[in-house]
Amino acid sequence: QVQLVESGGGSVQAGGSLRLSCAASGYTYSSGCMVGWFRQAPGKEREEVAMLYTGGGRTYYADSVKGRFTISQDIAKNTLYLQMNNLKPEDTAMYYCRASRLCDRWSSPADYWGQGTQVTVSS
User: DSSP assignment of 13-30, as one string?
Assistant: First the structure.
């Protein structure tokens, strides 16, 4: 019943920008505690890119994307965003959004995942 639908992925050249969106149905981001973006490249482990506490607005960014990526939410549209600027080839990965009602940790039995959207950055 709960579904997170991502959009905005694509192919860009290094230095370009993309904005990813994640719209939720059957779930309200503001009713939970954490939302975030993860990515996984072939042969690599899935890593957390950015996260946001929906209530207080506190954010976290991986060092590799800090200063280039911005996570945000539109409460009225119940949509999560990831603005990605100055993209690099190493940003190439499948990107996933995630939401959790928990505040202290991510938990697979309790949270929800999007289907993933591909981002490819060429040099």
Answer: ETT--EEEEEEEES--GG
Q: Where are the beta strands (DSSP E) in the chain?
A: 3-7, 10-13, 18-25, 34-40, 47-53, 59-61, 69-74, 79-84, 93-100, 111-113, 117-122
Most distant pair of Cα atoms in the chain: their distance: 41
| Strand-strand pairing, 111-113 and 93-100 | antiparallel
Per-residue pLDDT reduced to its tens digit, 39-88: 999 999 999 999 999 988 899 999 999 999 999 999 999 999 999 999 99
Answer for the pair 83, 24: CB distance below 8 angstroms, yes or no: no
CB 93 within 8 A of CB 39: yes
Task: Tally Cβ neighbours within 10 Å of residue 96.
Answer: 21
The pair of structure tokens assigned to 118 is 């591909």
For residue 36, which of 112, 119, 123 has the smallest C-alpha distance?
Answer: 112
